[in-house]
Protein 1
Amino acid sequence: MRTAVVTDSTAYIPKDIRNKWNIHMIPLQVIFGNEVYYEEIDITWSQFYEEVKTKDLPTTSQPPIGQFVELFEKLSKDYDAVICVHLSSGISGTFQGANTASTMVEGIAVYPFDSEISCMVQGFYAIEAAKLASQGVDANTIMARLDELKQTTRAYFMVDDLMHLQRGGRLSSAQAFIGSLLKVKPLLHFENKVIVPFEKIRTRKKAMNRIADLLGEDVSSGGEYQAVVIHANREEEAKEWRNELAARYPNVEFTIGYFGAVIGTHLGEGSMGMGWMKRLDR
């Protein structure tokens, strides 16, 4: 059985890595007025943060179902199955779109996977799936491996301005108002597929230290981990933090990712986070 791997643009997997592991990407859209940009194709993360400095905050849109159908039909010529790794169904209809499209194509078995998260942590799932697919592992076994990895996956992040999340409907207005009033840097995470507060912390540095401690709690149980430091137009700060973390946790492989245009629309510039998962023996 030949298995293809698809993910959406919010995984923010660098193009060279997508090419290396033959990962197909379907883009979400960022809309500035009448201008529509396909994320990771028409607009990079750095271009996006420049655009929002001079324009009103954009809206975002999931891929049309027809785009999924077209891709699945194309893949059916060379593959028997396709695994689709998507951002959390609690914040986007992208996963459901893949599900719906899967009922509209013939000749290929479609396996949508709800990562229940986003950004490069979502990307970790897609890369793992692609590595296994390249070894000829069947789709059901790959899906079981992704479910196993989900049990070891964590991600925490903070935002500079809670109003972005509130305006986009990703956080309640009451939570946003209270957070802004108290000038806190709340730690946020995904719980039951949606973004919820984890802890309220007063300063950015303390919030980052708390995230590092949470990583430490997991890695103390042993084993090797992969982690990603994720930033919203704070690349130098992310590099410095990555270096500090690498010295503190030598059994963790750290990379740097970013909150791209779609996720950045809802979190805002200056956001910072980290996600990780355990490396499982194959």
Note: The first helix runs from residue 15 to 20.
Protein 2
Amino acid sequence: MIMDFQYLEHTADAEFIAYGHTVDEAFVNAARAMAGLVIDPAKVKPEVEKSVELSGDALDTLLYDWLSELLYIFEVDHIVYSRFQVHVTPHEGGYTLEARVWGESVSRHPDISMHIKAVTFHDLRFEKKDNIYEAQVLLDI
């Protein structure tokens, strides 16, 4: 059994590695890791549902776009998320991500613990090691 994700020590920013037996699971766990930095997902009710569709040339850039889209939704729509469903499909020339996310209004959560400014390309990687997918992400806070 593998852990879903682990937070790494970083002096000025937030960094984590998310794991998964599948690409989809690693993308879900990366979203959970990022959400967990902002708020305890167990306190967020899945009252609002949103669909996300993205495409990218490579899995690492698709991961970047996925987490950036979640951050955008948080900032613009003022929604925090607690539940994620992701399906990544390879196609000629890249990948497509279709996802559904559930959460609720930020206004119900005055206890936001961290403000994430951006997902970065620094240390970004998505790779398979010993049959486990690893997604490493550095967030600018």
Note: The radius of gyration is 14 Å.
Protein 3
Amino acid sequence: MILLRRLLGDVLRRQRQRQGRTLREVSSSARVSLGYLSEVERGQKEASSELLASICDALDLRMSELLREVSDELALAELAQSAASDTVPAPMRPMLNPVRVTSVTSRPDSVTIKAPAEAVDVVAA
């Protein structure tokens, strides 16, 4: 199952790290506790829209940009999940480990899903 809060946290963490900022700096600017921001970044807490606005302000990031990046990642994850479930027998599907998708290439006869350290080819039946 794809968790929106996990994708949101991943994008927030990457944005913060791209800026070379610490959790402490962003939590102070956003007026959010360090522990809570950490839990949001790890996808353990569901952030309210007010909290997201505060974090985005602290990161000098438009909320629309944040949500666009989350939406793009969600689309890739859904495509990867769909491709995996089409080729894996039903009893084995719950045993699959989630893979962080970096890109998806589709050809008429197959779909290539690239994870950070590997590529998996899924051939259409």
Note: Residues 63-87 form the longest helix (25 residues).
Protein 4
Amino acid sequence: MSGSETLLVRTEGRAAYLTLNRPRALNALTHEMVRSLTDALARCEADPDVETVVLTGAGERGLCAGGDIRSIHEDLRSGQGAPATAAFWADEYRLNARIARCAKPYVAVMDGIVMGGGVGVSAHGSVRVVTERSRVAMPETGIGFVPDVGGCRLLARAPGELGTHLALTGTPVGAGDALLCGLADHFLPADRLGDFVADLSRDPVQDVVRRYAGGAPAGTLEEQQEWIDRCYAAPTAEEIVRRLTDSGEPAAKETAETLRAKSPTAVKVTLAALRRARELGSLERVLEQDYRISLRALASPDLMEGIRAQVIDKDRSPRWSPPALEDVPEETVARFLAPLGERELTLAAGHSTREAAS
């Protein structure tokens, strides 16, 4: 098999190895990479000699830090409605659905930083491996955006309100909490990854997993779940922040301050999207919702401002519009979720390999 400069593809024995190859950019996804991954996955599924698909990231820092948001900023600055970004998201969300439906074991090595779009190309896979170096997050509200790539579906299925907490705050989690929240399946020490990945070329996935997987380091969310569940069960984002502030828990009060620093529009839309994801059922329906929200975000001032503050100028002082949760009307939230008409993304219904096995 052949790939591209930004996606390395090789086969060895029973496995096909797909490596995201932009290490200096923390393997941030470009449209070219999404297309290359889609093509490579199709070839893997059609090749009778390939029994396992393995996704890794080049370099030592992580699998993937997400989509290339600098390119989104440039597209927005063009003043043309960001058509390149809209096309990128449509193909990215189709890829996320395809990964979930992959007919062969799809092993995602979620070592190091795995955020945003990196979660989309890994956490929908059938075998998801984390290490003590893993930092998994959907940090979109910090740039005026909403967790996409099916992230709301993943987080909606976490125990209690843990997923709501992670979606609204963008808090990164380590291996133990990733396992607790259903974002990963197995823990491996990082120093054993090389042997683990090599053995996938020789033996069935489950045999290799049993050989290498072990107990993960303890996380922190389980001991915080009581106040998280109580506060995030509130009906509105404003009430969530009030409960966090008044809870008496120092960590909860800090979380309230964290939420106040995020885009108010993004926080309120994220809360609505997450709760609606619990009712939508399939990943495809959630990805269709993601596309509606994403295109609406292109017309919202907060996305461009958030990227500017966090990535371009790096002053970490975004000027959100509107500036407070109380200033975001419910009509605005509803508009983000409303159908797109002829621009709607329609994905064929399918069942993930994970659901089929459960």
Note: The chain has a mean pLDDT of 95.
